Amino acid sequence: MSDQQNVESTWLRALEEALEAHGDEPSARFVQLATNGECPSNRTVAFRGFYPTRSGLLFATDCRSEKVRQLRLNPEGALCWYFQRTREQFRLSGTVTVVDRETRDTDLARARVEVWGNLSRETKAQFFWPRPGEPRTARFVIPSSGLKPSASFCLLLLFPSRVDHLNIRTYPHHRVIHELTPGGSWSRREVNP
């Protein structure tokens, strides 16, 4: 394993271990995503897994949402994820790719279908509801089918270029910043909390 892979695997392994330690807590799958359109915006999204070929993080959302519009204008995003049991915070920032039904990359399209297949019936139903943010005028109907992803279903795929990992379980607290260099390798530096 190269030094670059070692550095990347350090933050990735720490994140996987935090998720594993919180495996029985559904709330540990929720993370705050910040985007920047006309003004900064922040919301909670549900983590749906890791992208298999790179250290990308997958989130499901509605293509009609404001966050998708913002990300199409400016694909930079940032996550803040706090794990209560292990007392760790991960702040990840990087480029967010929107994966929708028009995506031609076969690996990304396959990831979209796989995440759709893992969603609950109730979660799938949300993608058939009226447009997010519009006045609520009708009852929501849960479709009886849903084998194929809704046209409004898309993935957000964050490829981090910076990971700030803070562990406050230890004393003194421990903070490490991992950054992707222009050459494609990862650097790692310990900093004061």
Protein described:
The chain is an alpha+beta fold and 193 residues long. The chain is built from 4 helices and 8 strands. The chain has a 6-stranded antiparallel barrel with strand order 1-2-3-6-5-4. The model is unreliable at 1-5 (pLDDT under 50).
List the topology elements.
Elements: H1 3-21, E1 30-36, E2 40-51, E3 56-62, H2 66-73, E4 76-83, E5 88-99, H3 106-118, H4 121-126, E6 153-167, E7 174-180, E8 186-191
Antiparallel strand pairs: 1-2, 1-4, 2-3, 3-6, 4-5, 5-6, 6-7, 7-8
List keywords for this structure.
193 residues, alpha+beta, Pnp Oxidase, Chain A, 6-stranded antiparallel β-barrel, 4 helices, 24% helix, globular, disordered N terminus
Report the sheet-strand fraction: 35-45%
The overall average pLDDT, rounded, is: 89
CATH architectural label: Roll
**What is the CA-atom radius of gyration, in angstroms?**
18 Å
Structural class: alpha+beta
Assigned CATH superfamily: Electron Transport, Fmn-binding Protein, Chain A
- Tally of separate helices: 4
What is the percent of helical residues? 10-25%
What's the total count of β strands? 8
**What general form does the structure show?**
globular
Number of domains: 1
The CATH class name reads Mainly Beta
Major sheet strand order: 1-2-3-6-5-4
The CA-CA distance between the termini, in Å, is 29 Å
The unreliable regions are 1-5
What string gives the helices and strands in order?
A: HEEEHEEHHEEE
CATH topology description: Pnp Oxidase, Chain A
Q: How many strands, what sense, and barrel or not for the largest sheet? A: 6 strands, antiparallel, barrel
